[in-house]
Structure formats: structure tokens, C-alpha cells
């Protein structure tokens, strides 16, 4: 039912690893190796985190990744959103759901309660920071 994707899981693990290294530059090969994450997938995840200005990337021999957003300020919802993902309760639990998402979207008796529950889930993810999760 409600599940966080592997990409989000790997992003959280990677951000924790970067944070645990006192924000010294950590290269992606080290992160992949230490955390046993497929390198190609990790590279895509880190690119998205760079694009959303959650981490900073420096190229070169002494390059690597550092956090731009302190772990105490980085919410789980920000991480999920940075990866262009969401954690949804059902296919209809977003405001602009269409009949392609669910054939009952127009007359479903549980859609509104599910929307309310989805909003509470989103609020929870918005209220939990990376620091709270990893400590």
C-alpha cells in the first residue's frame, strides 16, 4: 500500500553518509561502494539532488558531494519531491486525479477520506527532517 521507493531509500542513505562525514566531500563511487548501492542509480539520484540544490557537486580529483541543506532543515518530503516521486496512498490521492488514474475517481465514496489521509501523510513527511530520521 504505502511504500517508499528504493530511489528515496538510497537518497536518504546517501544523504546520511554525506552528513556523517562531517560534510567533507565524498565521491559517488565511495558512497556506492560503502552503502552497496548500484553506482548508475546512485549517480542519477545525486544528479537530481544537485538539481534541487540539496547537495553540491564538485568535479575533479578532490571533488565530491556535500550537503547544501543542513540535515536539521532537510525534510523527508523535500527528498521525495527532489526525486520527482511521491508516496501515495492510492492512485486517486492527488488533487488532479483523472479517470485514467482510477475509473471511480468521480463518484468514489472513499476518495475524500483518502485525500485527507494523504494530506496527513504529506504533512508528516514534511515535519520529519533527515537529522531526526537518522539519529
Description:
This protein is mostly helical. The protein has one domain: Winged helix-like DNA-binding domain superfamily/Winged helix DNA-binding domain (Arc Repressor Mutant, subunit A, Orthogonal Bundle). The protein is 48% helix and 6% strand. It is built from six helices and two strands; from the N terminus they run αααββααα. The protein has helices spanning 6-20, 28-35, 39-51, 76-82, 111-127, 130-134, and strands at 55-58, 64-67. The chain has a two-stranded antiparallel sheet with strand order 1-2. A hairpin with a 5-residue loop joins strand 1 (55-58) and strand 2. Helix 1 packs across helix 3 (39-51) and helix 2 crosses helix 3. The longest helix is centred in the last third of the chain and has 17 residues, at 111-127. It is elongated and about 60 Å long.
| Approximate shape | elongated
What would the CATH topology be? Arc Repressor Mutant, subunit A
CATH class: Mainly Alpha
Structural class: mainly alpha
Q: Compute the gyration radius: what is it?
A: 17 Å
Give the SSE order as H and E letters: HHHEEHHH
Q: Could you state the CATH homologous superfamily?
A: Winged helix-like DNA-binding domain superfamily/Winged helix DNA-binding domain
Main sheet characteristics: 2 strands, antiparallel
Instruction: Name the strands of the widest sheet in spatial order.
Output: 1-2
Write the CATH architecture name: Orthogonal Bundle
